[in-house]
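User: Here's a chain of 327 residues. Predict its fold as tokens.
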Amino acid sequence: MKYDSTYKFRWSIIGSGHIARKVARELSDSGLHQIVAVFSRNQITGEEFCKKFNCSFYDKIEAFLNVDCDCIYIASPTDSHYEYIKNCLEHGKNVLCEKPITVNSRQFENLIYLAKERDLYLSTVLAFKYGKKYQQFKNDYNAYKYGRIEKLYMSFGLDASLLKKRTRYFDPSTASGAIMEHGIYMLAFIEDILGYSTDIFIVDVHMDKGVDIEAVLTMTAGEAMCNLKCSNRKVLSGDAVIYCEKGLVTLPFFNRGCSIYFDDNIDTLQKEPFSFLYQFNQVRLEIMDGKKESMFNTTEHILNTMKMLDAVKQKMGIIYPQNIENL
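Assistant: Prediction complete.
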């Protein structure tokens, strides 16, 4: 299919929850995207979603997968990702899935093979990698502006007990927990900047009914010592504080990738508005150009991050139900 620069990219969406609605709002207002269909197991929220965004509702996955679209965005709980992605690829659909893309790296490796076999695009949502200030930091770091990174401190957390659908955060059958919900951002950041590493030490972890509620860990990546804290029981700053040879760099709310300041001086703050469109516009261009992965979040990077996540879970003793770990 031939595209032009004004082409309205057609999305089908799996899921009608909070994150799907936030993304759909930006897509609908952009002028470059349109939503054609949504699949949801919740008929009430699914129909409300379709009324708001002028698309078709499906409660049968087979019918949904027969809708003509350019890409399917998956915004369902993590335990469902593998089967949904597999079904989408088997039906010839390009896929962009929320993070973590699967429960484990073995599942993702299987999907990589399937996507290549079907010649389809496959990636995961990690908005910070597309943020302008994260891109600025990464480019400057790679150009040796800051010298080598010596230490890195990262934290990210929220009080999940206050959320409307809080039960998911404390249920091992949904593959949730502090590491899967928040640690994934930190590991992806470290892998992207410092490289792959499983040299990880668990300092402290609070478990409840098989789910990690809060965790503190250290790891060595490149030449840097990294200290990470994530939590589902308290709000944490969300900052990445990076000690470099030539100064201190801070990325507030690093998971957004849109703010940066230097040498502990807030007056140097540079900030851009956050938007999911940075990534979704890039995915649109990549698929229109025939690409099969994202230049800012390659298959190799995603797989490395998933292997690092597996290593953390193994060292914490996190074991999810076998039915969501299987291929």
